[in-house]
Amino acid sequence: MTSPETASQPRVRCSWCGTIEDYCHYHDHEWGFPVDDDRRLFEKLCLEGFQSGLSWLTILRKRENFRKAFANFEIDKVARFTARDVERLLGDAGIIRHRGKIEAAIHNARCAQDLLKTEPSLAAYFWKFEPDPKSRPRKVTPEVLRELTTSPESVALSKDLKKRGWKFVGPTTMYALMQAMGLVNDHHEGCATRAEVLKARKAFKVPR
């Protein structure tokens, strides 16, 4: 549960979200909390791909449109999309109309199906790349966070996905996914949400 916020005592947050309401809500309730749901993981991977060259705020504000356009990112449904669906999506002003990114999302759904033939779940696969806490910075400050754009684990994850044929899964993109989905806790020291994420992680059962 997030701590209350008042005009006299504003909630302390990571500096990247500023005072933008959409960012603040996402920061307080989603970013960094551990996720073991395959649909959410696949959605995040796809949206990170669409974000390439854009801001996350742009994608966040279009997220509901993306969910409607991409069958709520249900892997099997997206994998069945055809060339007709690509043209439909290219005409949807509510999303990012980039042919390469649209086709990559559909392609990655099929890659996810292949991965699930050998892995118990997407979650079990992604969480194998959780860094050892001892390898993480002792203190996460805004300055440290600006330098944390990749990690050895995100590089390894990217390399393995690319080997499996996935697209738009570079090391920086995969690190952003790891930050958002709770594989790392990059909330700044002093951020009210940092302790909440730590508590959630302690109660979280890593999927195997």
Please describe the structure with a list of short key phrases separated by commas or semicolons:
12 helices, DNA-3-methyladenine glycosylase I, DNA_glycosylase, about 0% strand, single chain, about 210 residues, Endonuclease III, domain 1, Adenine_glyco, mainly alpha
The CATH architecture would be Orthogonal Bundle
The portion of residues forming beta strands comes to: under 5%
Distance between the termini: 27 Å
Q: Determine and state the CATH class.
A: Mainly Alpha
Largest sheet: none
The Rg value, from CA coordinates, equals 17 Å
> Do you know the CATH topology?
Endonuclease III, domain 1
Poorly predicted runs of 5 or more residues? none
Mean pLDDT across the residues is 93
H/E element sequence? HHHHHHHHHHHH
Pfam family, one: Adenine_glyco
Protein name: DNA-3-methyladenine glycosylase I
InterPro entries: Adenine_glyco, DNA-3mA_glycosylase, DNA_glycosylase
Organism: Cupriavidus campinensis
